[in-house]
Design a protein that fits this description.
alpha/beta, globular, 16% strand, 13 strands, 381 residues, 11 helices, TIM Barrel
């Protein structure tokens, strides 16, 4: 029996996954902070057939003294909004951490992104671990794995509830009755956590997808709160085990890739960059992540092997300007010919392309159950 086709995602932040990737980029250094660069990269990914692009982010600059990398970046949500306006098929998922950010603001920004993209928004849940990040936020530092996970879980719960706080039919827009909203379809979330509380409701109507697609590293938050678990493993077998253990509706394997280009083997490209900084010390890179280096046909074979073990992959190219071209010319076309990967559908939401159902507002479900119970009691009198 054939396996369901893989969903393909690619990380397009900066110039690539290597800390010194900017040294091999095909653009002027200042272009990294301009709109044309991000729009062009997203267009290449969309035309290649990727289902989703992700955009890393952090309150701190992405570069390091060792690599001499970029000293700044544009906000991931702002870049995602620009991409959404300049594309029509591909999903867009920025990294947004809730360690110090207000969940109310996170909810509003991501709901707005889903409206701008007409239902193609996702969210990669992140964490802020360093003392420098806490100082940049002007907040007391959150320390320890348990505390970081608590902030992530609380933030995600609040954001989901705020998305649900407007029912789908809350906006009336009735000229005849001079009503824009049906107040009975708006709900207080009344969240009480260990470190903060949120009343609600949201100030942005419910997103087109109900809730944007939520991606998170496996184990960071409960499986019931995410749509896609991002799993790591140093081999296909370990990735398959991690995917099965994640318990999320979908599991995407994280894979670093460095491909042979027409003029240079992958090994030589890596060696050139390793003179400036080691790839293994890239910010946020977990140990034990699968890495593929070599010709395009080898990556095709690896992804075909993974198609029976995971639901999708998120690729982290060594240098975007070099590897994304090889992916679009030699890897994705072959995957589509072999029916190993899925094409995004025109006019579809990201949830539809991923085979995920559109969730109902939990408040609408609660209200319906209450009404049914009331009608049942009245009917039994």
């Amino acid at each position: 029996m054939p396996h369901p086709p893989l969903h393909l995602a690619v990380e397009i932040d900066g110039d690539g996954d290597h800390p010194a990737a900017w040294r091999r980029s095909a653009h002027a250094p200042g272009a990294l902070l301009g709109p044309r660069r991000v729009a062009r990269t997203a267009a290449v990914a969309e035309n290649a057939g990727f289902t989703l692009v992700t955009l890393d982010d952090d309150i701190l600059p992405p570069g390091s003294a060792a690599s001499g990398g970029p000293a700044g970046r544009l906000g991931a949500v702002e870049r995602a909004a620009f991409i959404a306006a300049s594309t029509s098929l591909i999903g867009v998922a920025p990294v947004v951490a809730t360690t110090y950010a207000e969940p109310f603001h996170v909810s509003s920004r991501l709901a707005s992104l889903d409206h701008v993209s007409v239902g193609r928004a996702g969210w990669v849940v992140g964490v802020e671990e360093t003392a420098e990040a806490a100082r940049a936020w002007g907040r007391p530092r959150v320390t320890g794995e348990a505390a970081l996970r608590r902030e992530a879980v609380d933030g995600l719960r609040v954001v989901r509830d705020l998305w649900d706080s407007w029912e789908d039919d809350a906006v009336v827009r009735s000229v005849a009755s001079s009503r824009y909203l049906n107040g009975e379809r708006l709900h207080y979330v009344d969240f009480e956590g260990e470190t903060y509380s949120v009343k609600g409701p949201a100030i942005v109507p419910r997103p087109p997808q109900g809730r944007p697609v939520v991606l998170a590293p496996a184990g960071l938050v409960p499986q019931a709160l995410v749509d896609i678990a991002l799993v790591d493993g140093s081999s296909p077998a370990l990735l398959g085990e991690a995917a099965a253990a994640s318990g999320a509706p979908l599991a995407f394997a994280e894979i670093e890739v460095a491909l042979d280009t027409p003029g240079e083997p992958a090994a030589e490209r890596i060696a050139d960059l390793e003179r400036y900084a080691p790839w293994d010390t890239a910010p946020g890179r977990p140990p034990g992540r699968l890495r593929y280096t070599g010709p395009a046909r080898g990556l095709v074979a690896l992804l075909e092997e993974l198609s029976g073990l995971v639901d999708g992959v998120r690729l982290h190219p060594l240098v975007l300007d070099e590897d994304l071209s090889v992916l679009s010319r030699l890897v994705l076309p072959e995957l589509f010919v072999r029916r190993v990967a899925a094409h995004p559908l025109p006019g579809a939401t990201l949830r539809t392309n991923l085979g995920l159902p559109r969730p109902e507002s939990r408040f609408a479900t609660t209200a319906a159950l209450t009404t049914a119970a009331t009608n049942s009691r009245e009917g039994n009198r």
